[in-house]
Write a structure and sequence with these properties.
The protein is mainly alpha-helical. The protein has helices at 2-27, 30-51, 71-89, 91-112, 124-141. The chain folds into 2 domains: 1-89, no CATH class; 90-143. It contains 5 helices and no strands.
């Protein structure tokens, strides 16, 4: 149950953050806003680290394979793409497409056991669920 609640909170925070970041971009630039978002996230993470676990900051470099360290690079790309999509489509449509893309990518990752995840078997119910999500996009965009 706690995992479900955290996931719901995560989704809500992503939507609100996307709107905030898009608004900040209007008074600066996309890369200035992105840098501020990443820098403020760094400060929050460092503060949380200082008050909680205090594991060596250099321990992340023990991660294998090394390409797993590209999460921050992806974070910058995610911030940029969320801002651009919300600006072009509006928050609701952008988040709808983002979430459906996340579901599809996550299912493919677990289906093929990519990036060190445990491979999961094909299930029709998951494919049907993905199809319903895509149908939701069609219904949402229907005029």
């Amino acid at each position: 149950m706690i995992g479900f609640l955290i996931a719901v909170l995560s989704g809500a925070l992503m939507s609100v953050q996307g709107v905030f970041n898009t608004q900040v971009t209007k008074s600066s630039s996309i890369w200035t806003a992105n840098a501020f978002v990443q820098f403020s996230a760094l400060l929050v993470c460092l503060a949380a680290w200082a008050f909680t676990d205090r594991t060596s900051l250099l321990s992340v470099f023990r991660a294998e394979p090394k390409y797993m360290l590209l999460g921050g690079v992806m974070g910058a790309a995610i911030t940029w793409t969320v801002i651009k999509s919300m600006d072009a489509l509006g928050p609701a449509k952008a988040v709808l497409f983002i979430v459906v893309a996340q579901i599809a990518a996550a299912y493919l990752i677990e289906l093929f056991g990519l990036f060190g995840t445990q491979r999961q078997p094909w299930e029709w119910r998951k494919a049907i669920g993905m199809g319903l999500a895509v149908a939701g996009i069609v219904i949402f965009k229907w005029k």
